[in-house]
Amino acid sequence: MYSNKYLKAYLMIHNIKQSDIALLLNKSISTIHRKNEDLGYTQKEIILLNQKMHIPFKVFFYDFSADDSEFLPDL
């Protein structure tokens, strides 16, 4: 099962606000909030966030059912 907990942690640690993401993706802040909570991002959005905000791909794909020692993103 995938979780957004590492994405949310990465955004908080790097002081990336939902409003910054909303502006980049041309979405409302409430849509970004929903994407962060449970909807997730499209492939196109993930690539854009990686290219423009340097958010690593791996934070979008954390599988919390896997052993944590196998996947520890560099926050």
Q: Could you walk me through the main structural features you see in this protein, from its secondary elements to its overall organization?
A:
The structure is a single chain. The chain has 75 residues and is mainly alpha-helical. The protein is built from four helices and no strands. The chain has helices at residues 5-13, 18-25, 29-39, 43-53. α2 packs across α3 (29-39). The radius of gyration is 12 Å and the shape is globular. The mean pLDDT is 85.
**What is Rg?**
12 Å
- How big a fraction of the residues is strand? under 5%
Give the termini separation.
21 Å
> Rough shape?
globular
Number of strands: 0
- Please write the string of helix (H) and strand (E) elements: HHHH
As an assembly, this protein is single chain
Catalogue the unreliable spans: none
Biggest sheet: strands, sense, closure? none
Number of helices in the DSSP assignment: 4
Mean pLDDT: 85
Features:
mainly alpha
List the helices and strands and how they pair.
Elements: H1 5-13, H2 18-25, H3 29-39, H4 43-53
Helix pairs in contact: 2-3
Short summary:
Helix content is 52%, strand content 0%. The chain has 75 residues and is mostly helical.
